[in-house]
Amino acid sequence: MEQVKIRPKLETSYGRFAASRAAVLLQHLLVLDDFWTAELKQANGRGPLNEDDVQVLGRLVGAMERGLVVVREPLEEVWLMLNDSSDELIEQRFQEIAKAPGAPPGLRDLLAHLAEYELRGAALTGCVYLQKKARSEADLLRSKLAMIVEGGEVPPGDFLIPFRCAALIALVGAGVVSTVGLGGPVGLVAMGAVSQVGLGAIGWVEAKCEVQVPKISFGRRG
C-alpha cells in the first residue's frame, strides 16, 4: 500500500515525531563530526595512517554523507512547523525546556547570542542553510578523504563553521518543536529534547556562532 505523505503540524503526534527525527539526525551528524575531527587531529600527530585507519575513516565519511542526505527532508518538515509557529510560542517553550530537570546551566544564554534574530527566525535560517549546503559539505568530506587515501595527507576535520553553527541552531529548533503540545512540564517523554536543545544552545554560544549569522542568513526564506 502506498503511503500518503503527511504534512507535519505543530501540536500533533506526527509533528512531534517529525521534529524528533530531525533532532536525532542532526545530533548524530554533530557527534560524527566531532569524532571525525578528533580522529584526524590524533592521526596528524602520529605519522602515516595504516590500512585499518583509512578504512575506518572511509566508513565514517560514508556515514556522514548518508546523514547529510537523509536529514534534508526532516529539516524541511521542521522548517514548515517553525514557519507555522510564532516567535512567542517557540521562545516560551524554549524557556520551559531551560527550566526542566537535567537542562544544562547557561542554556538561556543562547538568546543573547543570536545577533538580530529571534530564536524561531534563527532556527528557520539554519534549516534552509543546511538544506542548501548539505551537498557541498558532503563533497568537502569526500575530498578530504581522497587527500588521506591518495596522498597520505591528513587535513583538519570539522564541518565548515557556518554549517556547524546552522546545524546547532536547527537542532535547538527541532528539539523545541518536538515538545510543543505536550503541555505542562516537559517531563520524561521529552528528556531527549532537553539534551538536544542543550547541545545546540551551548554549542552555539561556545563556538561564537553569532558572528556566522551573516553567512548563514543568505538562505533565509519566507
Descriptive overview:
- The chain has one domain.
- It is 66% helix and 0% strand.
- The chain has helices at residues 13-44, 51-70, 72-84, 87-98, 119-151, 161-177, 191-206, 213-216.
- Helix 1 (13-44) packs antiparallel against helix 6, helix 5 (119-151) packs across helix 6 (161-177) and helix 6 runs antiparallel to helix 7.
- The mean pLDDT is 87.
Percent of residues in helical segments? 55-70%
The end-to-end distance, rounded to whole angstroms, is 35 Å
Average pLDDT across residues? Answer: 87
Strand content: under 5%
Radius of gyration: 18 Å
Q: Number of helical runs?
A: 8
Number of domains: 1
What is the total tally of β strands?
A: 0
Q: What is the helix/strand order?
A: HHHHHHHH
Topology:
Layout: H1 13-44, H2 51-70, H3 72-84, H4 87-98, H5 119-151, H6 161-177, H7 191-206, H8 213-216
